[in-house]
């Protein structure tokens, strides 16, 4: 039984066994107090090696226990006379499962800053903070699937190796089989360029930056769909919000309206907030105490109504009230503008809607006057853009013209433009950075600290 299950019974218990890693051990007048955690809850369990135990044969083992040691302890769970916890386990037997040398173990020295822990991604999960972050992450993932499955959306993960680049501006990773370490030996075509015909797919292929286009094809035949594929972007960015590989929740809905998309996104975030508040109370409280002060209030704040503001209005506000005088209509918004906007609207999430198509993607539904039915959902507390979504352009003529204007090669997108030729229908969707969502619900400031083994520009260590 996990420590969480033992403590959840909320009663004294005879002869229980726990297995886990020692967080702390303290020796005092023949007694030893040891906190053991198996990763099931933030607090772990307090184990007492009392005087009687310490006179027995297993005492020799206690002397070899340090932070990080893996042990198995059995005994009775009693009400704790001390303040720190309701119950404690009085040890009767002890087994050393895995010794941990205190001189070498990198986490043996109490509280370590998150940045330092990034060097020990294989071990940091044993700390209180990372335990909470990963349990909340897992809960969010389950809640996300429940939300979509209950609504009857189909979960389908299309191919991540693809020939299209979807988001023009996002850098792509090329996929190749040939080893071109010795560049002189690389196969070349008649023009002297690398000969893609000799490679695995007989042509150049990429890791997907977004599964949207494939989802659209699925949606225009089987209705509402979603994916939890990873997306890959070779952006040369070292911000606290960008990774080379991230979990991308993408949703595509058929026969919807632009407002439906925003209603749906808002409902989804509120659903997750409620779920996490209900099911991750201990973890939120633990984070609230130490690394993310105020996180509970922030998650509760997700229940208030989201703002919906047109892009043109946002530019006006930023210029007039935010004193960003250099900003003009047609400019993209940077992180500082996003933060200013959410602060201006009392830390509420803000949908920035109706962007100029000139700075947005070719597939967005065009409106008269050069704007398109698109939105970015901005989140407060420095998280910034969490979702990008739009209605999709359903007219074949309009989308072909836009691709021409934006100089997009139509050949790899024939399947996509076909959708507009054969029974086109109104549809739309969005992409949500799941890792940024975890930042939002844990209060963790750097995306590298909400992911098991983050991969970012200049950093692929595991
Ligand atoms: O705004 P983006 O680029 O939109 C798309 O890719 C659309 N094709 C999605 C769709 O409509 N199906 O990305 C969507 C979200 C962003 O709002 C952000 O949260 C996240 O993906 N994201 C990243 N997260 C981590 N690291 C990166 N490098 C990210 N790039 C985007």
What does this 3D model show about the protein?
With about 450 residues, the chain is of the alpha+beta class. Helix content is about 30%, strand content about 25%. The protein contains 14 helices and 17 strands. Strands 6, 10, 11, 12, 13, 14, 15, 16 and 17 form a nine-stranded mixed beta sheet that branches. Strands 1-2-3-5-4 form a five-stranded mixed barrel. A three-stranded antiparallel beta sheet has the order 7-9-8, with no helix packed on it. A hairpin with a 4-residue loop joins β15 and β16 (about 385-390). α5 crosses α8 (about 280-290). The longest helix has 23 residues, at about 130-150. The chain is elongated, with a radius of gyration of 27 Å. The model has no long low-confidence stretch (mean pLDDT about 95). 4-amino-1,4-dioxobutan-2-aminium adenosine-5'-monophosphate binds near residues 166, 387, 429 and 432.
Name the poorly predicted regions.
none
Bound molecules: 4-amino-1,4-dioxobutan-2-aminium adenosine-5'-monophosphate
Taking the alpha carbons of the first and last residues, their distance comes to 31 Å
Mean pLDDT metric = 95
What is the number of helical segments per DSSP (H or I, 4+ residues)? Answer: 14
What share of residues is helical?
25-40%
CA gyration radius, whole angstroms? 27 Å
How many β strands by DSSP?
A: 17
How large is the share of residues in beta strands?
A: 15-25%
Q: By helix and strand content, what is the structural category? A: alpha+beta
- Major sheet summary line: 9 strands, mixed
Per the principal axes of the C-alpha atoms, what is the gross shape?
elongated
């Amino acid at each position: 039984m996990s420590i969480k299950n033992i403590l959840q019974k909320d009663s004294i218990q005879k002869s229980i066994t726990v297995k886990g890693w020692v967080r702390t051990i303290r020796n005092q007048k023949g007694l030893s107090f040891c906190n053991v955690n198996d990763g099931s809850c933030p607090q772990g369990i307090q184990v007492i090696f009392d005087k009687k135990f310490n006179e027995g044969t297993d005492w020799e083992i206690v002397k070899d226990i340090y932070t990080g040691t893996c042990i198995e302890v059995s005994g009775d769970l009693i009400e704790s006379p001390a303040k720190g916890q309701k119950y404690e386990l009085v040890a009767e037997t002890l087994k050393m499962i895995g010794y941990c040398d205190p001189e070498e173990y990198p986490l043996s020295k109490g509280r370590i800053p998150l940045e330092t822990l990034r060097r020990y991604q294989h071990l940091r999960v044993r700390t209180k903070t990372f335990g909470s972050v990963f349990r909340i992450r897992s809960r969010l993932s389950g809640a996300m699937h429940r939300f979509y499955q209950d609504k009857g959306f189909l979960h389908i993960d299309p191919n991540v190796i693809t020939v299209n680049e979807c988001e023009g501006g996002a850098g792509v990773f090329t996929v190749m089989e040939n080893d071109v370490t010795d560049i002189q030996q690389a196969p070349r075509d008649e023009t002297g360029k690398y000969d893609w015909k000799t490679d695995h797919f007989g042509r150049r292929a990429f890791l997907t930056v977004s599964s949207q286009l494939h989802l659209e094809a699925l949606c225009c035949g089987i209705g509402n769909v979603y994916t939890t594929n990873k997306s890959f972007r070779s952006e040369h960015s070292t911000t606290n919000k960008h990774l080379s590989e991230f979990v991308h929740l993408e949703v595509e809905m058929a026969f919807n309206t632009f407002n439906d998309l925003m209603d749906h996104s808002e409902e989804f975030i509120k659903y997750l907030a409620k779920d996490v508040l209900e099911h991750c109370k201990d973890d939120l409280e633990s984070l609230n105490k130490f690394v993310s002060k105020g996180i509970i209030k922030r998650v509760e704040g997700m229940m208030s109504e989201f703002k919906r503001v047109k892009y043109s209005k946002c530019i006006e506000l930023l210029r007039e009230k935010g004193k960003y005088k250099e900003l003009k209509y047609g400019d993209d918004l940077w992180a500082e503008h996003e933060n200013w906007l959410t602060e201006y609207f009392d830390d509420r999430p803000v949908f920035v809607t109706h962007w100029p198509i000139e700075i947005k993607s070719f597939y967005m539904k065009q409106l008269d006057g050069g704007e398109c039915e698109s939105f970015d959902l901005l989140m407060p507390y420095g998280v910034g853009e969490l979702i990008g979504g739009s209605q999709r352009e359903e007219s074949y003529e309009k989308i072909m013209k836009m691709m021409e204007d934006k100089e997009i090669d139509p050949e790899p997108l024939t399947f996509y433009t076909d959708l507009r030729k054969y029974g086109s229908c109104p549809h739309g969707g969005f992409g949500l950075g799941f890792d940024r969502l975890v930042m939002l619900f844990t209060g963790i400031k750097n995306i590298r600290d909400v992911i098991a083994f983050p991969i970012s520009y200049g950093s692929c260590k595991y």
